[in-house]
Structure to design on (813 residues):
């Protein structure tokens, strides 16, 4: 009996390390595939090179890095006001009953497949952009709007949780001094929930940087360094997905190398979000 | 001129309300738009026949099979791993360095983009282990992807079970494992199932991780080592390559209905579960 | 009659808080020993050392010895499931498991391998009768135990412990949340159970102790102040503090 229990515990311990093992496996495999080409080209030339032309063995991903930054920034610009407004409304102003219904409703946005978002961009946004702003349709603007909607549930949901974690006594103190609800939210609740909200935003950024299929369908995918929001761009993720199907040899390695950069960025974002969220627990 | 706080309050409240309403409207618009254009395409023939001319005509039967098989394999593999991890974190280990590390790993894995899973699944399963583009490769990749979801929900569900249940079972002469399998897990089951269903939901809608691991064959698969195409992948190919807008809408409508159904069921289950234990 | 349980120099710490201070106590076979004392005096903690339930609390540290039938239960080779079957426990708040009445009672026996339906049925009936619950539930054994009233739930918990066929039963304020009628029923059951079991009953109701106990032990701030025959404790206590407590001057 005792022996069995111990065996079970060891088994579970091994299971518990599965996520870490998988993370390490992912890291090892993409490093193994992608590192050789980075070393050959040189880290600086790989990251800062502006030329991506696999046939001539030119592997510079600077345009893709810029593409990811542009689109993510655009998505944040669109998503931030909206998601914070939703979170504040549902956590502070709506009746609890409405909050209980609308929070999962907004979270449902996270369940809609990326390809459906991409498709909506194609059929709804492209014509609008063509008619009112010019150009063929696929561009940073379209991708930013769609990505903004896609990361909205992440930011909203985490922000609601952080707002609701602020002790009720904080609000009472402020309301008792004659402050209105909004003044209370602005001066007491939001500062107290700040770190949680920031962690949520960073996770949202992570989602935006990592999104692939929706972006492929609407960003235009041209390897250029954009200078207007109506330019088409290619991101780190779409660079991989677009060429994976036919890439071989060094070209394929270069795609994995793109994956390395992406993986590192995402891990850094995760670590930062984790540290910030943890600080919240300590100060509480 | 000074604006009265009460007036600001009214304005702010309106703005916040409109933003929330706008967000909900976006969701409703997507759902209704897809359903309006897609529902008319769906009939028995569409569901039960194979695509012809790359999907320009015919139905989506093989894709439905693929959409069922891949998530199925994923949850068969991810559920024991996920529930085992959750049990270890909640029942065997006090909060400490080790649990923090494991939880951190879980959070990180949850943040890994699906394209990275696709790359990884491609080298590990398709190339390195020689499974080729297959249901097995795709299912395994999805299993890794949904593992954090299952861990998180299971952990939450197990934690919701009153501590006194465990005390009772132990005081009646139960071993730790007996207590877990006979009291804790059965009580936590609805919560665990919620996590599994959410995992299915993510798998059903996934494209990037699937297309590089399971491929996109349009034949009805005969074994786990056959390539297959899920509805999400099919929809992507139809829409992006402009093969058939009509069939793309039809496929998307089925996807949306499936996702709505999955989310409603999991929400309902979790709601009932939490009402019972709090 | 012999001693069923002997407790020697028992100390128990929760981190730095000492909840039990050098307890020495003998519990006789087939008696009802009642433990009384004010809140936080260590009654529950003491009870839980007798079936090693305090071990679930990681920061609880124990010193001293506890013998059951002459065997030190804190020795390495003691099997916890074995110990907890011999020393059954009923908690202050009734905790029916979310299962049927039948399954609740059969839970313990099934754990140690009784699978025969007939045997289980017999055991369930016997235990429910002994807990004076049989007549009230015999037609609804397959209903959820959560539907029972508080008093019924507590008797269910007693029956569930009896189904283990233990030798010692620990009861932690089993009547604290109950009405007088349910309390009377449980006390009636205790009178009967005494014939077969050694019973340790924690109660903060001194009248109850006087009604059902053979001997009484008085705990105060983790100390065992005194213990003896129920008449002696309630009429001529040796310690001033016992007298103060019994006459209601504190606690
Ligand atoms: N799990 C625990 N962790 C830390 N301290 C504890 C724990 N359980 C009990 N204590 C402390 O040990 C002391 C004795 O508690 P115990 O529950 O044994 O008292 P009691 O006599 O049963 O009181 P009551 O009549 O209220 O049930 C108290 O000071 C209590 O705070
Ligand atoms: Mg107590």
């Amino acid at each position: 009996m005792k022996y069995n229990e111990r065996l079970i515990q060891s088994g579970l311990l091994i299971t518990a390390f599965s996520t870490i093992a998988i993370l390490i496996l992912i890291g090892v495999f993409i490093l193994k595939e992608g590192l050789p080409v980075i070393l050959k080209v040189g880290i600086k030339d790989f990251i800062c090179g502006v030329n991506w032309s696999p046939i001539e063995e030119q592997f510079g991903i600077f345009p893709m890095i810029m593409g990811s930054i542009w689109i993510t920034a655009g998505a944040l610009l669109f998503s931030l006001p909206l998601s914070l407004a939703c979170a504040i409304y549902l956590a502070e102003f709506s009746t609890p009953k409405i909050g209980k219904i609308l929070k999962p409703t907004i979270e449902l946005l996270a369940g809609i497949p990326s390809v459906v978002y991409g498709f909506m961009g194609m059929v709804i946004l492209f014509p609008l952009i063509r008619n009112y702003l010019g150009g063929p349709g696929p561009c940073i603007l379209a991708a930013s709007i769609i990505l903004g909607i896609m990361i909205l549930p992440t930011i909203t949901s985490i922000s609601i949780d952080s707002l609701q974690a602020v002790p009720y006594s904080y609000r009472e103190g402020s309301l008792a001094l004659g402050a209105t609800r909004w003044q209370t939210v602005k001066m007491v609740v939001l500062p107290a929930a700040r770190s949680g909200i920031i962690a949520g935003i960073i996770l949202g950024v992570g989602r935006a940087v990592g999104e692939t299929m929706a972006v492929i369908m609407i960003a235009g995918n041209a390897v250029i360094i954009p200078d207007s929001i109506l330019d088409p761009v290619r991101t780190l993720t779409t660079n991989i997905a677009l060429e994976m199907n036919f890439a071989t040899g060094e070209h394929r390695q270069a795609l994995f190398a793109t994956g390395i950069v992406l993986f590192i960025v995402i891990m850094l974002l995760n670590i930062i979000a984790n540290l910030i969220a943890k600080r919240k627990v300590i100060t509480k | 001129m000074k604006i009265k706080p009460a007036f600001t309050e009214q304005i702010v409240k309106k703005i916040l309300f409109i933003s929330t309403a706008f967000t909900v409207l976006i969701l409703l618009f997507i759902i209704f738009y897809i359903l309006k254009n897609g529902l008319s395409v769906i009939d028995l023939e569409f569901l039960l026949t194979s695509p012809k001319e790359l999907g320009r005509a015919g139905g989506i039967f093989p894709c439905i099979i693929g959409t069922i098989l891949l998530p199925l394999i994923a949850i068969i593999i991810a559920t024991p791993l996920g529930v085992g991890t959750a049990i270890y974190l909640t029942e065997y280990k006090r909060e400490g360095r080790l649990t923090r590390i494991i939880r951190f790993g879980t959070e990180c894995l949850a943040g890994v983009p699906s394209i990275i899973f696709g790359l990884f699944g491609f080298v590990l399963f398709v190339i390195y282990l020689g499974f080729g583009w297959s249901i097995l490769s795709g299912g395994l990749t999805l299993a890794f992807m949904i593992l954090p979801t299952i861990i998180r929900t299971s952990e939450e569900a197990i934690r919701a079970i009153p501590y006194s249940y465990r005390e009772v079972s132990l005081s009646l002469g139960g071993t730790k494992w007996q207590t877990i399998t006979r009291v804790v897990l059965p009580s936590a089951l609805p919560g665990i199932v919620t996590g599994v269903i959410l995992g299915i939901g993510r798998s059903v809608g996934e494209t990037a991780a699937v297309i590089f691991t399971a491929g996109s064959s349009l034949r009805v698969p005969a074994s786990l080592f056959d390539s297959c195409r899920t509805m999400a992948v099919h929809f992507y190919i139809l829409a992006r390559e402009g093969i058939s807008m009509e069939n793309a809408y039809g496929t998307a409508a089925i996807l949306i209905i499936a996702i709505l159904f999955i989310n409603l069921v999991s929400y309902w289950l979790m709601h009932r579960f939490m009402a019972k234990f709090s | 009659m012999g001693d069923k349980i002997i407790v020697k120099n028992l100390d128990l710490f929760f981190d730095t808080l000492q909840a039990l201070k050098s307890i020495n106590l003998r519990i006789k076979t087939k008696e009802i020993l009642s433990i009384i004392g004010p809140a936080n005096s260590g009654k529950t903690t003491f009870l839980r050392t007798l079936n090693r339930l305090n071990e679930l609390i990681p920061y609880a540290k124990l010193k001293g010895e506890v013998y059951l039938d002459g065997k030190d239960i804190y020795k390495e080779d003691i099997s916890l499931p074995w110990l907890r079957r011999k020393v059954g426990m009923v908690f202050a708040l009734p905790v029916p498991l979310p299962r049927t009445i039948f399954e609740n009672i059969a839970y313990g026996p099934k754990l140690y391998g009784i699978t025969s339906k007939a045997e289980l049925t017999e055991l369930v009936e016997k235990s429910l009768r002994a807990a004076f619950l049989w007549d009230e539930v015999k037609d609804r054994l397959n209903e959820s135990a959560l539907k029972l009233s508080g008093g019924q739930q507590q008797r269910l918990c007693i029956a569930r412990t009896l189904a283990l066929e233990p030798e010692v039963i620990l009861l932690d304020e089993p009547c604290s949340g109950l009405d007088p009628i349910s309390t009377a029923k449980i006390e009636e059951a205790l009178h009967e159970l005494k014939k077969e079991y050694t019973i340790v009953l924690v109660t903060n109701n001194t009248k109850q102790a006087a009604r059902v106990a053979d001997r009484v032990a008085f705990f105060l701030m983790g100390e065992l102040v005194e213990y003896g025959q129920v008449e002696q404790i309630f009429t001529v206590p040796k310690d001033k503090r016992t007298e103060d407590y019994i006459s209601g001057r504190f606690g």
Remarks:
- The first strand of chain B starts at residue 51 and ends at 52.
